[in-house]
Amino acid sequence: MSNNTHSPLLDDHPAIPESPAQQHKSAVVTVTDPRGLHLRSGRDVVRTASLFQARITAANLSRNSNAVDLKSIIQLMQLQARQGHDLQLAANGPDADAAIEALCSLF
Amino acid sequence: MQQLFHGLSAAPGVGIGNIYKYAPVAADDPGATTTHAAGNPEDEWERFLAARLLVDEELARLAQIGQTATAEIFLVHREILHDSTLTDAVRAAIDSGADATRATRQATGELVRIFQDLSDQYFASRATDIRDVGQRLVFRLGGITSARQLTPLPDNTILLAEDLTAFDTTHLDQAHVVGIALAASTPTAHTAILARSLGIPLVCSAGAEILQLHSGMFAVVDGIRGRLLVDPDEETLEQYELTRSRLRRFQAEALSHSHEPALTPDGERIPVRVNVNSREDLLHIHANGAEGIGLLRTENLFQHRTSPPSVSEQLAAYQDVHSYTNTHSLTVRLLDIGGDKPVPYLQPPAEANPFLGVRGIRLLLRHPQMLIDQAQALIELAQNVSPVDRIRILIPMISKVSEVHQTLELLEEVPGYKHCRHKLGTLEVGVLIEVPSAALLAHHFACQVDFLSIGTNDLAQYTLAADRVNSAVATLATPLDPSVLQLISLTCEAGRAAGIPVAICGEVAGDPSVQPLLLGLGLNEISVAGPAVPLVKSAIRRVDMDAARELAATALKCSRAQEIHQLLHDIG
Q1: Which of A48, B137, B277, B472 is deepest in the core (most CB within 10 A)?
Q2: How far off is chain B from A49, nearest CA to CA, in Å?
């Protein structure tokens, strides 16, 4: 995956700065890896997500999928994310901003 | 009577033996669970954690031994082992009264079903990874798994199954399994990677029909051509026995030199490339030591949609493929579609016999814009590559000289074509020789193109009027028939006279033993399935060109395919 093709889109909330304990952050990223978000690249995503306390989910907008837990490789695979698919990442928790920033850098 | 099943080559080699049909115990089959009385949930959870620790250590060990590709599998399996989705489900089952073994079977069984229902094949086949981790856990918990079903096995076992997990493959009785045939799976699945590293010939995607076969039947797994033969006739069996002994001799050596170029002892360099059918084939180009792509099929880009792909869409797809070639050439076959694969936006006419109907270039010349768009995308790619990694356009299904002329005239009009082909030297145009008339007339158009490529599968079918998928006549359509060799020879002569290279991209080219004959006939480039690359390169390094030309001259005098097989045997 390359990290330069898509910048995260801010969601509706950040207009009002929130207290750190209640950060909400979301972003849309596009899968650029020709092989899609396969096991190996998925593992990197899961590992990164697991570094944060925030609850982090992802939904595959291109497949209209439900949001899944991004800290689980098993759930991540169920997104069936192929190259070109748009994923909506969302984080909730004290380090949500940092989590989304770190995750976006993987795409 | 001999039965032939076509599949895909996933690990090279030839295995001869008796079928053992393996049906795994379902992950959540309660009958497979040992009658262990469930202790209290805390004790069962402790048992699960203890088993998980053992599996984790085992996977860590496995990841340290094998090659990088196999190591990756085990690292990913460790990830699944610790995944909260799995462990939460096990915990929930234990809390509702199941013992650790049953809870593991239930949890993994449910996840396997979820994955099997996914629409995308790559992700659906991740079910195998989950089943694999489940098996390891159940094994450590003392339950019945393939490790107890697949060991020990009798001598010379041909293992037949729907699919195998990496666990199955690492636990099977490796000393006694001489070949594997799978109804499903792909050449890039973990099992295929492991089979290659274990040196066990493997044919996959052979179709559900093979599951009708019985244990004990005598069979040959041809991992070179991707075939399963049951009850082979005497002559065929003899051929396979010869091939097998030849292969054993240089298999080990081949793998250690796969990244070196294939030079004959006389110093002639023969590029060995790969045929690419799917995205997955791309991933192993480098690992196998292939020098670029000798045949990229583009049908997938055009099917299952309501309008043709745009130039930019195609360009992106070709750029993607090109990025895997590692500064080697990329040969792209123009859309080769006919009535057998209807594409709605082309409104194909209903045909009684699509293989003799409007297909390949015949179809493209009826829809010139499609041809122009595809060429445009390839030319745009050629404008941005270095002259060493050329883009080659391959024209399929040529049967008339006029079709070559019409195609070239259309190409001339595409912006950038002349610049790339004549100035930059990054674009080449070639003709696929797969219809006998094209071979017979090749000398009339060879001087107008940059290369020829012989598709021996179709050339043999069209020459012998025999469908190679129809097992009743498939053996007639052998590319080693003297009639086909005559056509190959004519094509090579035409190429030589015009000063252009002649390639071969049919499945026969993947057989190491035919390399002396192919080079002797005058072929300059070889394109094969990925796993065959190391063995083919190794065989080329043994070809004495003078002897090979003599062999080809003798072969061209033969009247029967059997004599040609005999010749190859005598020199092997």
Answers
A1: B137
A2: 13
A62 contacts chain B (CB < 8 A): no
Orientation angle between helical segments B41-64 and B127-140, nearest 10 degrees: 110
Segment B534-546, tens digit of pLDDT: 989 999 999 999 9
Chosen from B75, B114, B126 to mutate, greatest number of chain A CBs within 10 A: B126
The pLDDT of residue A15 is 41
**Closest to B120 (Cβ–Cβ): which among A40, A74, A80?**
A80
For the residues B386-408, what does the mean pLDDT come to?
94
Size of the A and B interface in Cβ pairs below 8 Å? 48
ipTM of the predicted assembly exceeds 0.85: no
Q: Which residue has the tokens 């002349």?
A: B418
**What is the least distance, in Å, from the CA of A32 to any CA of chain B?**
10
Q: Which of B83, B320, B323 sits opposite A74 (nearest CB)?
A: B83
**Domains of chain B with bracketed CATH:** 3-20+155-191+202-232 (3.50.30.10), 30-146 (1.10.274.10), 238-274+451-572 (3.20.20.60), 297-433 (3.20.20.60)
Active-site residue, selected from the candidate residues B204, B420, B492, B505? B505
Q: Which of B126, B81, B122 is nearest to B104 (CA)?
A: B81
CATH homologous superfamily of A13-104 equals HPr-like (3.30.1340.10)
Q: Report, as an integer, the average pLDDT of B525-550.
A: 92
| Residue ranges per structural domain of chain A | 13-104
CB contact under 8 A, A40 and B283: no
pLDDT digits (tens, 9 = 90+) for B221-255: 999 889 999 999 999 999 999 988 877 777 777 87
Q: Kindly report the nearest CA distance between residue B532 and chain A, in angstroms.
A: 23
- Non-local (6+) Cβ contacts of B421 within 8 A are B427, B428, B429, B450
Per-residue pLDDT band at B140 (split at 50, 70, 90): confident
Check if the beta carbon of residue A106 is closer than 8 Å to that of residue A10: no
| pLDDT reading at B201 higher than 90 | yes
Do you find a cis peptide bond into B271, omega within 30 degrees of 0? no
Tell me the pLDDT of chain A (107 aa) as tens digits.
433 333 333 333 444 444 556 789 999 999 988 788 888 888 889 989 999 999 999 999 999 888 999 999 999 999 999 989 999 999 999 999 999 999 998 88
Arithmetic mean of pLDDT, B2-25: 88
> Are the beta carbons of B248 and B15 closer than 8 angstroms?
no
Determine the residue of chain B that is closest to A37 in CA distance. B123
**Residue in B380, B362, B4, B399 with CA at minimum distance from that of residue B203:** B4
CB atoms B123 and A69 under 8 Å:
no
Give me the residue label for tokens 């499609």. Answer: B370
> What residues are paired with B169 via a beta bridge?
none
**Chain A within 8 Å of B553 (Cβ-Cβ)?**
no
DSSP letter for B455, please: -
**Is residue A73 within 8 angstroms of chain B, CB to CB?**
yes
Q: Does B76 touch chain A (CB under 8 A)?
A: yes
